[in-house]
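Provenance and format

Records in this collection were gathered into a single text stream. Each protein contributes a sequence line and a token line. The two records reproduced below are adjacent in the stream.
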Amino acid sequence: MSEQTCVIFAAGEYYSDPIDVPDGAFVIAADGGLDHTRALGVRADVVIGDFDSLHGARPADTDHTIALPSEKDDPDLLSALKVGWSRGCRTFHIYGALGGRIDHTISAIQLTALLARHGGIGFLHGDGTIVTAIRDGALAFAAHEATPGRMVSVFSHSDVSRGVNEPGLKYELVDGTLTSDVVQGVSNEFRSGVASEINVHDGTLIVTFPAESPTPRVTRYREFGGDLGALDTHVSPILVK
């Protein structure tokens, strides 16, 4: 199955950031994200959710609609990622998953780490910033005119991340070790006209960078396996009735 880019519209904040849907992308509206695809005139290939955050009309029951129970284990965004993954997508651009409820934001960031664990890459777009995760690999940024004061930050999602390098950034970390409970990589910057890279040889990093920056080229240092799991359309068995 050939790799495809997936664009997911979630139900959170959209700010005034431009939205880019590449030609041929597989588009998913996750729950209230359908309000946004409708407003933008974007056709969703699949609509999924329990529709508790949808303000407009509920979608018709068709082959392109996946209705989920409200009392479920997987959040709507994870369900959307599972659908995209099953269609061969490994690169995900996600709008409406940052801002608003802080628990939803944390959940979305964790899901980028889940994608990275299996060899995928997810980019969360919001408020002029992109958030992503990389595991045992590199994000290479082409040289560009960087805006002063626009920050690049790196955090360890894994307990320990080893062999972290940031060549080309203002603060060039070399073979560093970052941990999940010590903040050392916040508030770095791109340098104008200088190509840069953020890489980690053992661990998972969460990386934030300005939305106007070039999309980084992703390199993985090893083969990844597994998938995101089967789509769960059942009421949570954890609930006590």
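Adjacent record:
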Amino acid sequence: MTLEPAPDAIRVALVDDQQLVRAGFRMVIDSQPDLTVTLEAGDGAQAVRLLVDHPVDVVLMDVRMPELDGLSATARLTEAWHARLPADRQPRIIVLTTFDLDEYVMEAIRAGASGFLLKDAPPEEMLAAIRTVHRGDAVIAPSSTRRLIEHMAGALPAPAASDPGADPRIASLTEREREVLVLMARGRSNTEIGADLFVAEATVKTHVGRILAKLGARDRVQAVVTSYETGLVTPGS
């Protein structure tokens, strides 16, 4: 049964070249009162054309599609949104694939995705992923985040200055916010960060929100990438 979506429902776009797959996803998503499918696209090129100006919150993006693959479409969309929208209003993208490979996850993060999900994941996992990225978190286990980011670190440019504090993005953070960002980069969850710093998880969430705002980051994965780019965190530290 399809429920009438709430006025503030999360707006979802489906990008997949298989119509039956989109129909299945739409049926599951539209069954939730807090979610609604507002747009569909059959390939990456169409997705870019339609989504640059279309109001949407979360995009489910297939990897393998004709015309333009999902990773390339993700990169083009995130670049366009970055130029037009503040970080907290930029849509989040969850990349969908049938292959559980690190290379896809890393490429998805590089392209600007906030999540990575296997297409055969249970429906409840997909629904949770949409809600999670909409909150600003990433759909990648914290332990995997560190492993993947460290793989990426070798491809990132060297920090412009030897002192991370010289970077205005890092300089804008308080000492506690820097501590939280370092622990995020080490793959610690909010609960674990709270235990490490002897503060409540709600306090950690507040710090994370402020870090994302100050760094202009879409989510915590992008914030962790910034910590490596600026030299605040180095591989193996």
